[in-house]
Amino acid sequence: MYTIITENDESAWADKTGFLYHFPKKYLKHLEPGTNIIYYKGSLKKKAFSKTRLSDYPHYFGIAKIGKTYLDKESSKNDFFATITDFIPFREAVLAKDDSKYLETIPESRKSNYWRDGVRAIDENTYHLIVSKTNLIKVSEQKTAYISDAITENYQDSLESFSEGKKSKRYVTTYERNPKYREQAIAIHGNSCSACGFNFGDFYESYAEGFIHVHHIVPVSEFEVPKEIDPETDLIPLCANCHSVVHRKKDKTLSIVETKNLIADNSNQKT
Ligand SMILES: [Zn+2]
Ligand SMILES: [Zn+2]
């Protein structure tokens, strides 16, 4: 599946490019897990945003894939959000209109309102036509795998550091600190501690609102092969206390259940 997603300069949606994408339910069918997406922006509306964009004109600015989709518990309108994987920004804008012709095919019946839809299914040819206007490099026989020449070096680097020893620990902390996985995990699990329920915003008010640690729940010793992280199953929010306790012993990382049991045992003694 191939889909265009629109990002607005100013928006009520808590979107983060390459991390998360919020959308109304009607677009769910175009954003199934694994869908190849192209990021799009319409024409500039407010001058102040000009410097944050690749072009003032309607344009495409990156590719990515849909990770998973979730019902947005924060939304009153039953909206959804998707985690985004494999984001590669374009270095230059790809204009929506090339030599007075649109790159997207607009069906006759949709001529008057086509651009109103922020999420638009496209065919495979249109996807590759848009991507062919950039300097991305195809990396596999699979037609949809691309890599940016700018990030090839980093990619090699990360593969190498993985093949050395002491890799696992580094990777675990990298995932725990990576802002993309943090945002995704918090969107999915919320920002209260999964072990004790502590919420920084409730306790310390707005000064600490949204503060939480994100813990990687695969034990360090079992973490051997590089894989794409799944923020739903691999990451969990923990308060600073519980996170310290979980990592207290170097040779063993406590599971969330074990941590919860410690807390329960302790409170039982008191009652
Ligand atoms: Zn806690
Ligand atoms: Zn941790």
Considering the chains and any ligands shown, give keywords for the structure.
271 residues; alpha+beta; ph1033 like fold; 2 domains; 6-stranded mixed sheet; two-stranded antiparallel ribbon; 12 strands; binds zinc ion
Layout: helices, strands, pairs:
Layout: E1 2-6, E2 20-23, E3 36-41, E4 59-71, E5 80-95, E6 97-98, E7 101-102, E8 119-122, H1 124-132, E9 136-138, E10 146-148, H2 152-163, H3 167-177, H4 179-189, H5 200-204, E11 213-216, E12 235-238, H6 240-246, H7 256-270
Parallel strand pairs: 1-3
Antiparallel strand pairs: 1-8, 2-5, 3-4, 4-5, 6-7, 9-10, 11-12
The structure holds zinc ion (2 copies).
Q: Tell me the count of domains.
A: 2
Name the bound molecules: zinc ion
Quaternary assembly: single chain
For this structure, what is the CATH class of the largest domain? Alpha Beta
Helix content: 25-40%
Strand order across the biggest sheet? 2-5-4-3-1-8
* Shape call: elongated
Unreliable runs: 151-168
Briefly note the structural class of the backbone.
Answer: alpha+beta
CATH homologous superfamily (4th level) name of the largest domain: ph1033 like domains
Q: What is the name of the CATH topology of the largest domain?
A: ph1033 like fold
Number of strands: 12
Mean pLDDT: 85
Radius of gyration: 22 Å
H-E order: EEEEEEEEHEEHHHHEEHH
What proportion strand? Answer: 15-25%
Give me the CATH architecture of the largest domain, please.
Answer: Roll
Specify the number of helices. Answer: 7
Instruction: Give the distance, in angstroms, between the N- and C-terminal Cα atoms.
Output: 56 Å
Largest sheet composition: 6 strands, mixed
